[in-house]
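> example.struct
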């Protein structure tokens, strides 16, 4: 019985290692239903095809990574449901994918707290409903991207940063409109 358990454990470890090595060395495939999940606490960006995990990357976050983004300049990476609104191949940080922050919930909060006007709130809501770029220059902050530049420490102003070669891989496959969920 003990030998059987050891054999099962050894086989499990072997297949797990093969899966991890294969995942690291394989480029992202074309996907039918790509979506992105960012786990801030784990410093991970995961690419899914529907419900199936495809690949996981290590990331850096804003210089003040705890909590949800509240205002411009707070150094926090936003939390919530967003989508990719732009692909920028001329980014200051190699390549970048624009994240649709602020979303409707952020706009409602900003209006309630007096950070944005009714007009700004309405423009954000309209952009989100049209899957366009929301206002980027308000007191809520903006210009949140997934970009290159490295991931050795939390250094961005609220963006998610990866190694350049990993950003290249993601940039080639992820399209405008791809959903992204950012969780604590």
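> example.seq
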């Amino acid at each position: 019985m003990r030998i059987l358990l050891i054999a099962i454990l050894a086989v499990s470890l072997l297949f797990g290692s093969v899966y991890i090595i294969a995942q690291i060395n394989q480029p992202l495939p074309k996907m039918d239903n790509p979506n992105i999940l960012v786990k801030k606490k784990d410093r991970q960006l995961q690419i899914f095809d529907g419900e199936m995990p495809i690949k996981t990357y290590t990331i850096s976050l804003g210089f003040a990574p705890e909590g949800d983004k509240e205002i411009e300049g707070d150094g926090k990476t936003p939390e919530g449901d967003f989508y990719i609104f732009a692909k920028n191949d001329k980014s200051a940080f190699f390549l970048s994918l624009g994240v649709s922050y602020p979303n409707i919930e952020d706009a409602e909060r900003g209006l309630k707290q007096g950070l944005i006007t009714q007009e700004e709130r309405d423009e954000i809501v309209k952009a989100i409903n049209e899957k366009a770029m929301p206002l980027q220059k308000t007191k809520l902050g903006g210009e949140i991207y997934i970009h290159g530049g490295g991931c050795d420490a939390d250094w961005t102003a609220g963006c998610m940063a990866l190694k350049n070669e990993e950003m290249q891989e993601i940039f080639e496959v992820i399209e405008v409109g791809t959903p992204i969920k950012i969780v604590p």
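> remarks
The chain has one domain: 31-183.
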